[in-house]
Design goal:
It contains 5 helices and no strands. The chain is mainly α. It is flat.
Length: about 110
Amino acid sequence: MSCGEPHEMDCSEVLDHLYEYLDQEMPDRDCEKFKEHFDECSPCFEKYGLEQEVKKLVKRCCGRDDVPSDLRSKVMGRIEMIRAGDAAPEESAGGDTPAGGPRGKLA
């Protein structure tokens, strides 16, 4: 998506990192660049508004469920490994997943 106008940040880059912006998971200087882009680019601003509303709807409909602490720990551990650039861990030596079975299982 692009509005056809030149911007400091490319529209595809903005949209690739839109959820980081929505979730406030980026440095302040990057947030400022995103705000500037949204002020200049109506298609990206429209996409931002749509995704923001989707997040609100999901929170309203699903936000009441408590996440089990062990699941949260596993997910956060996996996220940290990915951010650190480590390869995804293979299934445990117990091997509860059959050969050729699904990978990336958290449980």
